[in-house]
Amino acid sequence: MPHLLSIQSHVAFGHVGNRAAVFPLQRLGFDVSALHTVQFSNHTGYGHFSGTVFSPDHLLEVLNGMETLGALSNMTALLSGYLGDEHTGDVVLTALERIRRHHPDAIYCCDPVMGDVGRGFFVKDGLPDWIREHAIPRATITTPNQFELGFLTGTTIATRQDALEATRALRARGPAEVVVTSLDIDELPEGHIAMMVDTAEGSWELATPRLHFETPPNGAGDLTSALYLAHRMNALAPEDALARTAASVYDVFSATFASGERELQLIAAQDSLVTPSHPFAPRRVR
User: Fold this and answer.
1) What is the distance between the alpha carbons of residues 279 and 246, in angstroms, rounded to a whole number?
2) Is the pTM of this model over 0.90?
3) If we measure between CA atoms, which residue out of 139, 133, 135, 165 comes closest to residue 150?
4) Which one in 49, 50, 114, 134 has a CA-CA gap of 20 to 30 Å to 157?
5) Mean pLDDT of the region 16-28
6) Axis-axis angle for helices 18-27, 220-233 (nearest 10)
């Protein structure tokens, strides 16, 4: 059974961070060890929450305990999401180094969580620069949203060509694959939003209908990164992994929209994580 480590936030209630990533990975057949950067009552979008941000020393202590057990020797991938600050990021790279001692080709999927269109940055000063300079060069796959892609490449993205030039520039910094998890560009049909994957072999785009939530659910990026990583580890081609990911995310969003709930309906829609009901075909754009 493939084993991987996921380092990101955790909430007791709701589905963001590891709560949006671990269950889908398990449902797809992966043994997941979860290292939580924070433990909050709920995600911060509610405006009120309680809990603790774990120190880098705490995270390193847990990581050391895992290594003592030999747990890191079985891992073939690392997934990172919300980190908190660059010192937490250093622990992520320590984990990556230790995993790659055993598996030099271990995949590192870096979800560069730092901000979003219309909201701007929502992480501490210094972390975006740290992600760009330290995490991205070591990543195999990175999964920015449109805002994050723009920051990481110093560009403004309004068209498909803008996006392709930005993903190519980001690949030049290290990652073999760049997955843009939400793309709102001029060429899309009205009422749609897109995902894109860019590799040296080609680029593919896939548009899905946009659901108009009164309060959009959090955690979509965390879910998308986990699903894409799982499908790539299961040997799907990038374009096929993109299609399966987009279809499952759309099904989960549809179930969430129908429920009237604010949290992603991962449990109710769990079968769609394995066998999505809305197939979408990616279109080659390069």
Assistant:
1) 9
2) yes
3) 165
4) 134
5) 98
6) 30
